[in-house]
Structures are given as structure tokens and as C-alpha cells.
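Thread: Mobilization protein, structure

OP (GT): Posting the sequence first so everyone is looking at the same thing. Length is 113 residues per the record. Can we get the C-alpha cells written out before standup tomorrow? I want them in the notebook alongside the other entries.
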Amino acid sequence: MAKSEKRQRNTLIQLRCTEAEAEAIKKKAMAAGISTSELLRRSAMNRRIMVRTDIRMMNELKRLGGLQKHLYSQMHETMTTELSRQFSEVLSGIVIAINALDMTPVPAEEIKD
């Protein structure tokens, strides 16, 4: 968004809603990675609102996999069969968790409150 478009937004519209409605709006905006104002603008203008996958979750899983691999290589000389099996199970679990994250954007309307 260009700076000039931001500067043009100088009109404030207030909205009354219940606590539950406010929480639902905030939750959907957070899931989509946009502000509540942007969510409401897009909704009012019938623009698409797509939810993005939690990139932080993906990065954390990748980081944990890297740490597990590092530990495995550090302990390689003193590795037992049981310890190797445990490392393998953890790495398999991390791979399954990464693959379970659906990277397809989802319309915000489909998010359950």
C-alpha cells in the first residue's frame, strides 16, 4: 500500500459490537495477518480476505529439526541403537508436523469462531 493511500485514510468510523463479536473480528484479523481496520474495510468492500499459515510455527518446527539434527551429529560417536531410534522418531514427528501445516490460504469466512 502506498503512503499516499495511508494518508488519505483520515475518517474514523466507530462500531458497536458485543465482546464476542469483537473477539471474533480480532481473531479473524490476526489469522489473516492484517489489522482489524483492514479486515473490516475488506469485508465492507467485498474484497477477498485470505488467511495465511502461521509462518512462525513453520520456522519453529524447522529450527527444532535443525537442533535435533545437530544433536544427532554431535552424539554420533556415542550413539546407541535405542538413542538413534529416539532421534529418528523425533525427526519423523517434526516432518509429520511440518507436512500437516496446510500452506493453502483459506478464506477468513471459513474460520470457526
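GT: Both are above now. Quick notes for whoever picks this up: The chain has one domain: 15-110. The mean pLDDT is 81.
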